[in-house]
Design goal:
The chain is an alpha/beta fold and 334 residues long. The protein has 11 helices and 9 strands.
Length: 334
Amino acid sequence: MKDPDISVVICVYTEDRWEDILAAVASVRAQSLPARETLLVVDHNVTLLDRLSREYKEAAEDGSVRVLANAGPRGLSAGRNTGIAASHGEIIAFLDDDAVAERDWLKHFASGYEDPRVMAVGGRTMPVWASGRRPAWFPEEFDWVVGCTYRGLPPGRVRVRNVLGGNASFRRTAFEAAGGFATGIGRDGDKRPLGGEETELCIRLTRARPDAVLLIDDRAVIHHRVPAPREHFAYFRTRTYAEGLSKALVARSVGSGKGLESERRYTTRVLPAGVARGLRDALLARPGGAGRAGAIVAGVFSAAGGYALGSVRARRGGAVFSVVEIPDGTGEAP
């Protein structure tokens, strides 16, 4: 079977990540299964847009790397939608701007699409800690806080409710069926670290296409840099609170049944096991055991508080988001 054409979209917003951006692009260009193109979507930063355009001038001439401006409102969702609309591939993959992909990343994504029912394939994201190693207090159950695969996700190639946006791919037809990423849910640069836009999209997709299959293949690996400020408890608390706010928006869009289906299993099975493991380690005098148990409890309460406030705001109409229709693969930005 012929491998599908894959376009890779990398959304960028700040020159502070210049070296990271170059490394991300280089990792895509070194893939064992070459990408049809890499699209760098710049989020309302003219200086960065001009600098990247100069950096990839030669690559732009042969179409291997294209630099374009976010054509929608500021934020990650609109940037992704711009990349989708401007891309040409049958499959659109997304890579974070501070991550590098292993050589067979796209190869493993492509293999998932041999089944025509598969509409999305995600991968495994590994943290690269700025300090060189995981903070002793930081529970693996909360690695999603730093954009990485967390303890509790099943191993191998498995069917899931949703993929994780920084290491994911979709058929183009998925966006034709369900529309693009909802603006008003996800991240906006360095502002409050909201998320959940890929969850909302995936649930909306399976409603539009009940036969759709969504997979995670843990062989499709990327390595995601975790900067020093995100190794501190202050960021942990802020991010878990923001996740609660985000989940309230997701529930508002798709209902709390599907919107919180995976989260219920996570909070009733995965997290209690994590607390027990941390307390056991504390009793055995292993470093960080009590801290990990405490962080799990604090993370649950912080997310619950965010969800409660987000639900109130949503009911009062204080939260607004919208879903855009993606053009039919014209290769032109909207």
